[in-house]
Amino acid sequence: MRPEILYPFFADTVSLPGVGGRIATLLGKIVGRKVLDMFWHLPVDMIDRGAMPKLGEITYDHVVTCEVTIDKHDAPLRGSRRPYRVWCHDATGQMQIIFFHAKGDYIQRQLPEGELRLISGKVEIFNGQLQMTHPDYMLRQDQRDQIPKVEPIYPLTAGISGKVMAKIIGGALERLVDLPEWQDTSLLAREKWPSWRAAVEAAHRPESQGDLLTSSPARMRLAYDEFLANQLALEIMRRQVKKKKGRSLTPTGKLKDQLVAHLPYQLTGAQQRSLAEIEQDLAAPYAMMRLLQGDVGSGKTVVALAALLTAVENGAQGAMIAPTEILARQHYDSLLEMTENLNVRVAVLTGRDKGKTRAALLTDLAAGEIDILVGTHALFQKDVIYHDLAFVVIDEQHRFGVEQRMALSAKGRAGAAMDVLAMTATPIPRTLTLTAYGDMDASRLDEKPPGRKPIDTRTIPLNRLDEVVQGIRRAITTGTRVFWICPLVEESEVLDLAAAKERFRHLEQVFGTRVGLVHGKMKPKEKDQVMAKFAGGDLDILVATTVVEVGVNVPEATIMVIEHAERFGLSQLHQLRGRVGRGADKSTCLLLYGTLGGETAKARLKIMRETEDGFLIAEEDLRLRGAGELLGTRQSGLPNFRVASLEEQGSLIAMARDDARMILEKDPELKSGRGQALRVLLYLFERDEGVKYLTSG
Ligand code: ADP
Ligand code: MG
Predict the structure, then answer these.
(1) Is 409 in the pocket of ligand 1 (CB under 6 A)?
(2) Is 587 near ligand 1, meaning CB less than 6 Å away?
(3) Ramachandran class of 493: left when φ > 0, alpha when ψ lies in -120 to 50, beta otherwise
(4) Which among 294, 296, 351, 504 could bridge 578 via Cys, Cβ 3.0 to 4.6 Å?
(5) Cβ count within 10 A of residue 218
(6) What is the pTM of this model?
(7) CB count, 10 Å around CB of 73?
(8) CA distance 110 to 138
(9) In terms of domains, do 469 and 325 share one?
(10) Ligand nearest to the CA of 266
(11) Does 330 share its domain with 391?
């Protein structure tokens, strides 16, 4: 249960002064609906009205406060469009104060000639002359304290002005209370970090530009709080899984050795290392929760199979789940091929299997006559009953929800948690792995199987499309197959589809009927049919929106064209490129770009030309663009951070991880004083999902 002290933070923003339904809705779009969300909405800049430069010192346009003597008023004639000007000066220079549509007598009263006034507003330099239009403040010297020294500048949304936003957040800050300290006091002392409340206040009330930096003590403290909440939550889950008794699946090598003996290749060092890590987990008496990361083509499937065979060696069953029908069938095909000489029965089950075949398969499954079942979500269905399911491989695990994972682990034997191996071809930088998959142990396939030909990657401006088409015409005559990925127009499937259809028609005009189109709006069956035609060689060119699934294997495809490559994330480009270079022939990837806005866009495409290392690409992408944009947060399974910046404060994560482990080692139920405070932290950052496990034991 949420600690009472936090209740006011979780109130709706409409409870704040100046916030009605309309504003609350607008706020909800960019900040959030709760008072708490306002705390995390930090200023990006500030106006420093406290700095009082002499007029002669002002060299650029910015907001200042100056002390000036009012000189001449230059009022426009009635009906004239000229603005009202007031001249003023100090010892170092002169300035014009400008008013449009001004009421002369009001200005006369505010700025009496010959008197000293404090003027605050944005000064602009126009033809070497200082001007200030409609000052924010015009006050006597004794009214000085009416001018706020520093005003935070917040990121805004349409419909909410800077003043209103500042007022709303000011209102939220009124609700701040001291919270029990959850950080180690010696850490706070060492880093010179303030208390949580002081940190929130300081972050919203910068006194200098330095206070706005992510390296400022207040912001570092808040970021560390958030990372600690993240790591603590993951560690709680991890311990929860580890605590559950799992099956001890000891590899006998009986089947695995046969598999390895029959493979037409040797396992790479990375494959052997990963497999050893997996086998160690399987043999251990707790449930495995491991992530196998590896680029497309790095050879995850054979590792997964070898691991699945361990379950079979122990007389149990294994399952392998893929996010799509196509992928499930491909996995099935490759497992079937690899187990050809083994006494192991592999079967496949997808949503497409119905009626008698399905019924027969389920009977065999329940009887234990199927050793390894491959499939899609269909494997979670209620009536799918296993004889003795002990181990599950989940491919592209971020596509599956927590509930689905839960549904699956309920299918094992009572009292023993399932061993789970998650696989992903989405390379994630090390720092992010900790935040996204910190609850799992990770193995990396960072070594490509030998003999792969490098993919020749080129960047070409879109206006040379005709040349590209001619080049493809020549290539096709030699039997090459081509993937043609259409641009992401925007986050709109309708527009993406329109663009893909247009390109399809264009290519159809050039190449005739040997061009196919797949897109996200097609029924799975139609999609499969087109894919199958392409894989079978009935089509030369496959035009696709980005639905070309990770893992789809067409070794004859050796050309990948990606239109408007600059609109894709690097990791996405990398994965798309991974569709080619799978056969014996040399492959090419053509990145067609529209306009390359800045240096970053150029640098990004350059990385694609220079390396095929997915991990390196992911690190560079993070460096260039920031984690938020990396892949699209949701797609990649990365958590959202409210105040912490992965790019700039990511170095704190490892520290938070160690801290979280130590804390739970000492106080596994978070019962101590500090433990209670840490519970508050988990609720504060809404990472309290695991708290229930602490008490239920
Ligand atoms: P991933 O699932 O990681 O994208 P796959 O498991 O589909 O990769 O493997 C890609 C290809 O590489 C397959 O054709 C597979 O047979 C082959 N392969 C896997 N491991 C090796 C190896 N050690 N040496 C040579 N080829 C390998
Ligand atoms: Mg694969």
Answers:
(1) no
(2) no
(3) alpha
(4) 296
(5) 21
(6) 0.69
(7) 16
(8) 7
(9) no
(10) 1
(11) yes
Separation of 447 CA from ligand 1 center, angstroms? 11
Decide if 653 contacts 641 (C-beta within 8 A).
no
Asked whether 297 lines ligand 1 (CB < 6 A), one says yes
Identify whether 672 is part of a domain: no
Q: Which of 82-86, 382-386, 490-494, 593-597 has the lowest mean pLDDT?
A: 490-494
The CA distance from 576 to 532, in Å, is: 18
Domain membership of residue 125 as a residue range: 50-147
Residue 169 Cα to ligand 2 middle (Å): 48
CB 216 within 8 A of CB 198: no
Q: Is the CB of 302 under 6 A from ligand 1?
A: yes
In single-letter form, the type of residue at position 494 comes to V
Q: How far apart are CA 520 and CA 460, in angstroms?
A: 27
479 and 590 housed in the same domain: yes
DSSP 249-286: -----HHHHHHHHHSSSPPPHHHHHHHHHHHHHHHSSB
H helix and E strand count, the chain: 25, 21
Give the domain-ending residue among 568, 590, 611.
Answer: 611
The protein residue whose alpha carbon is closest to atom 9 in ligand 1 is: 299
Please give the distance, rounded to the nearest whole angstrom, from the Cα atom of residue 352 to the centre of ligand 2: 21
Nearest to 39 by CA among 214, 228, 197, 231: 197
Going from the Cα of 326 to the center of ligand 2, the distance in angstroms, rounded, reads: 11
CATH code of 57's domain: 2.40.50.140
Q: Which ligand ends up closest to the CA of 578?
A: 1
- β-pair partners for 507: none
Find the range with the poorest average confidence among 185-189, 473-477, 608-612, 693-697: 693-697
- Give the pLDDT score at 402: 56
Mutate-to-test residue for ligand 1 from 298, 580, 582, highest number of ligand atoms within 8 A of CB: 298
Residue 639 in domain: no
CA distance 71 to 92: 15
Å from CA of 374 to ligand 1 middle = 18
Note whether residue 544 is domain-resident: yes
Last residue in a domain, options 611, 635, 651: 611
Nearest residue CA, atom 5 of ligand 1?
299
Regarding whether 132 and 14 lie in a shared domain, the answer is no
Q: Is residue 39 domain-resident? A: yes
The H-or-E segment that residue 123 falls in is: strand 116-126
Please tell me if the CB atom of residue 299 comes closer than 6 angstroms to any atom of ligand 1: yes
Determine if ligand 1 sits within 6 Å of the CB of residue 268: yes
d(CA 639, CA 223): 14
CB atoms within 10 A of CB 470: 12
| Residues 283 and 431 reside in one and the same domain | yes
Residues 39 and 173 occupy one common structural domain? yes
Tokens of 324: 């799509």
Half-sphere exposure of 345 (CA within 13 A, CB side): 11
Expressed in angstroms and rounded, the spacing between residue 303 Cα and the centre of ligand 1 is 9
Q: Which residue type does 524 have?
A: P
Q: Are 256 and 217 in contact (CB under 8 A)?
A: no
Domains: count for the chain:
4
Task: Encode pLDDT of 198-229 as tens digits.
Answer: 999 999 999 888 999 999 999 999 999 999 99
From the CA of 119, how far away is ligand 2's center (Å)? 67
Which CATH number is 584's domain given? 3.40.50.300
Same domain, 343 and 292: yes
Helix-strand-coil split of the chain, %, nearest 5:
45, 20, 35
Q: Which of 50-64, 176-190, 352-366, 674-688 has the weakest average pLDDT?
A: 50-64
Q: Which of 166-180, 448-462, 519-533, 651-665 has the lowest mean pLDDT?
A: 519-533
Q: Are 305 and 354 in a shared domain?
A: yes
- Give the list of residues 6+ apart from residue 180 with CB closer than 8 angstroms, or none: 673, 676, 677, 680
